[in-house]
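Q: Given only this backbone (160 positions), what sequence would you predict?
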């Protein structure tokens, strides 16, 4: 019986370890028109992270910067973060409410390299230069925060 219990514990531990990174994910973009309406109502920008599953730099950007930013009490109520997979044809709606795919949406914005981060205002307009590549890791979070701040500043007149 002890062998059974130890094997069961080992299997459960492996399952928990395997589920950990998968559970910590960014929301996948599905309906940017709905998201932008929510964004306007709340007065916060939308950060779209253009990624590929096989990209090691995307994994670092997601794990070390975007997920912590998403859960940081200082930022989590000031920006919505969604992910677009540039290498997949996942159905979604763009900011105008038109049906498209992740791949086609990325191409329509000229996204060619990943990771690329673009912050949009509540009307689906980019508010800062895209952050393309992982850049200097010492300053990467600062670049992201500055782009979000530009989005917040752009959203303020809409609130008045």
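A: Predicted residues:
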């Amino acid at each position: 019986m002890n062998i059974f219990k130890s094997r069961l514990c080992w299997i459960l531990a492996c399952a928990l370890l395997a589920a950990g990174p998968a559970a910590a994910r960014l929301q996948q973009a599905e309906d940017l028109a709905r998201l932008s309406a929510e964004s306007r109502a709340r007065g916060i920008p939308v950060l779209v992270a253009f990624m590929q599953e096989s990209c090691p730099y995307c994994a670092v950007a997601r794990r070390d910067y975007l997920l912590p930013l998403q859960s940081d009490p200082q930022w989590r109520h000031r920006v919505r973060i969604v992910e677009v997979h540039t290498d997949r044809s996942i159905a979604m709606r763009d900011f105008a409410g038109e049906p498209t795919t992740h791949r086609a949406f990325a191409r329509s914005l000229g996204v060619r390299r990943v990771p690329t981060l673009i912050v949009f205002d509540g009307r689906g307009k980019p508010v800062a230069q895209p952050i393309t590549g992982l850049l200097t890791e010492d300053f990467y979070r600062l670049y992201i925060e500055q782009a979000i701040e530009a989005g917040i500043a752009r959203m303020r007149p809409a609130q008045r």
